[in-house]
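Before a colleague's protein record goes any further, I have to sign it off. Thanks in advance; the entry in question is below:
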Amino acid sequence: MSPNPCTMQGRPTTGAEIGLLEMKHADELFALIDRNREHLRRWMPWLDETRTADDSRAFVRRSLEQFARREGLVEGVWHDGRLAGVVSFVRIDWNNRSAVLGYWIGREYEGKGLATSACRAMIDHGFGEMALNRIEIKAAVDNPRSIAVAGRLGFTREGVERQAAWLYDRFVDMAVFSLLRGEWRPGPLRRGRGQGSCARGTTSMRWSR
């Protein structure tokens, strides 16, 4: 089930939308995760905690509670009406006006520019309505696709956090990237279907401190 539509800014492909993940999307989210387990397990540490649709429902519920507390924002990424992945502000630090940006895309949707476009929309919103000053991306040093997204969006690589994340049976080093508000150049606005631009139009994004 597609969200309230919002056409992503600077999109390299057609039919791409983002919107707040809601309870009605939980079954579709679980189905996407379940058929991508081998693919996602390379970099996502939460696969063993997502075994049933109930687990996805619990995740969406927690995400909505976090959203209500203004501590995070979890959006679905849709392509041609099908859920293709997730993009989120995992943590929002209002005191320091910063947030950590995370994202993943199902294997069957890779190569379409969805992750980059979804992140671009989130960054536009973060530096726009949310008035953030700094956005971070953290990616395993041997995850080339995630690192490439940060590069395409103009993030600066700040360094490496050694053995910073536990991934099932080993620690992995995490590359840290950052982007500052003054460095960001938003693209031209593209209009959604009656909802305005992607960074400003979805009901999920109409809040800031």
